[in-house]
Amino acid sequence: MKIVRRKPQHQFCAEQHSSLLQEVLKNRVIEDESALDLTLRGLYPYHSLSNIDVATDMIVKALTSQKEILIVGDYDVDGATSIALAIRVLREFGALNVRYTVPHRILDGYGLSRSLVQKILRNPPDLLITVDNGISNVDGVELARENGIDVIVTDHHLPPEILPNANAIINPNLVGDQFPSKALAGVGVIFYLLLSVRAKLMEIGYFGEYPAPNLAKYLDIVALGTISDLVPLDANNRKIAQQGLLRMRQGVMIAGIHALIEVSNRKRENLSTSDIGFGVAPLLNAAGRLDNMQVGIELLLTDQAEEALAIANELFTMNEERKTIEHEMRETADSILTDITLSKEDLPLSICLYDESWHQGITGIVASRIKEQYYRPTFIFAYDNEGLLKGSGRSIRGIHLRDLMSNVARDHQGLIETFGGHAMAAGLSIYEDNLHKFEKAMSEEIARFIEMTPNSDELLSQKIYSDGELPATGFNLGFADEIKLAYPWGQQFPEPIFDDAFEVLDYRILKGAHLKFTLRKPQSPMTFEAMAFFQAHQLVDNVKEIHCAFKLDVNEWRGNRNLQLIIDYFEPIQ
C-alpha cells in the first residue's frame, strides 16, 4: 500500500464552504463551476436518452387504455428502489393494473431469465418493464415477445454485443447514446423515463385541471438506490443524491426509508452517504441476499408507519443472520488462502475461490473483503444446481472486470455460461468442472492486459489517495460536520482523506478484527480516538508510532459528540 497525495485539478471556488473544504474540493475532478451546484438546476434533461420517445408512448398508451403492466426488478437495493419508484409513480399516474415481480436469486437467476418468464406466462401482462436489469437477458426477452408481451428494458449495466429484442431499450450505456451521464443507477434510468411519461401526459392534457404529480417528491427513493449501488457520483448523480438526502434530513420521505433509518440507529438530521451505505442499505440488501427481495419492496411501498417499522425490524434480523454467514464464509476463505500459501510478494493475478457450503447471497461481500486485503481481482463462487456455480467478482482500479470476462468468453467458447456487470463488480455462472480453467483463463487475460498497459507495474500496486496533512484547525467537530453534510461523497467523488504521523498512546483489538487506537499528534497536546476496521492483521506488537490515512468522523454516545478518526490504512513507523 502506498499513500499518494492528490494534486489540485481546478481552481473553481465554492465560497459557501470553509477554506479548508475549498482546498479539498480543488483535488476533485470538477467539470466546471456549475458542477459544484447541488440544486436541481442543471439536472440533465431526459430527451437525449436513446429510444425514450418510443418507450414513453408505449407507457402512455398502456395508461390511457388501462393495460396490465408488470415491473420486473433485481434483488438488490437499486432493483428494489426502482420497482418501488415505478409502482408508486405509475399508480399516481392512474394505473389500476400495475404489479411487480422479482427473480428468486437461487431459483431464477439474474434478471428476466427464461425461468422467470415461464412463471410470468401463467398470468401474462400486456406490457413488461424491466428495471435495473434486462440488458443481458436476450433469451428471456425473446420468450416474452414470442408470447405476445411488449417489453421495455430499462437498465444501466454495460450492454453485451447482442442486445435483447425488446420493443425499446433505455440505457445510457448503449452504443451511440447521447445522454451526458453514463453513471445513472437503475433507479435513475426509470426515474428519467417516468419524467418523460409525465411530460407526455401533460402534453395530451391527461391530468385535466389537476396539477401533474411532482416527481421530485420521490427523490428520497432515487437517492437511496443511487447511493446504495455505488455508481460514480458525477455532477448529475451528486444532485440526485444530495436532493434526496436533504429531503430525508427534513423528514420528507416514505415510511419505509424512515423506518430503515430508525432501525439502523442513524440520525435523520445529519444523514450522509456513509450512513446510507453502511447502515440503511445493508438492511434492505439482506432481504435479497438471504430470502426474497419482496420483503424489502413491500417496505418501500407501504405508507403505514407501524407496518414499515415491523418490516424494518424483520430486515434487521435478516441482516444479523447475513453477518454471521459472511463471517463464516470469510473464515473459510481465509483458511483456503492460508492453505495455498498466498504471500503478498507472490500473489496470483486473480483470486478464485469456491466452497460448496457458501451462500450465493454473500459471495459479493466476501469477494470485496478479500479483494481489499490482497488487492487482486477476486471471484467467489457458491453452488447453484446441477453442477453449476454462481460467482461474484470484484476488481481493482484500472482493471475492467466485465470487459475481461467478455474477452475470456470470446476466446474460450462455452467456458462461461452467463455473465454481466460493471468495471468493478460483475457476476457470472460456470460449471464446477470449468472452475480451474476459468481461473487460468482469467489470469492469462489479466496478464495480457497488464502487458499492454503503460506503467503496468503500478496497476497491481495498491494506493490510497490523500488530501494531505490536515492543519490543527481542522481537527474539530465543526469541520467533521461540514464534510459530512456538504456533498454526497462516493465513487469518483471521494470523501476527504488526510494523512499524518501519530504517536500511539494505546490500542486494543475489538471482535478479533478491528483496532481502537488512542493517538496523539507529535509535539502536540492533541489526542484522538481512532478506529481501524478489519485491520487487526496489520498490527505490529508494541507499535509506538504510525503513519495513517484517515477520515474525520463524529462518535455519538449517550448524547455526547466526540471527534473520531476513521483509519483507512496505517503503517508502523520504525
Walkthrough of the structure:
- The protein has 16 helices and 17 strands.
- By secondary structure, the protein is of the alpha/beta class.
- The protein folds into three domains: 2-30 and 464-572, OB fold (Dihydrolipoamide Acetyltransferase, E2P), CATH 2.40.50.460; 52-214, inorganic pyrophosphatase (n-terminal core) (Alpha-Beta Complex), CATH 3.90.1640; 340-458, Diaminopimelate Epimerase, Chain A, domain 1, CATH 3.10.310.30.
- α13 (363-374) links the parallel β7 and β8.
- It starts with a strand and ends with a strand.
- Residues 69-226 form the DDH domain.
- Residues 353-447 form the DHHA1 domain.
Question: Whole-Å distance between the termini?
Answer: 16 Å
Structural class: alpha/beta
E-strand count? 17
Described by strand count, sense and barrel closure, the largest sheet is: 5 strands, parallel
Number of helices: 16
Question: What percentage of residues falls in helices of 4 or more residues?
Answer: 25-40%
In the CATH hierarchy, the architecture of the largest domain is Alpha-Beta Complex
Low-confidence stretches: none
Q: What is the molecular shape?
A: globular
CATH topology of the largest domain: inorganic pyrophosphatase (n-terminal core)
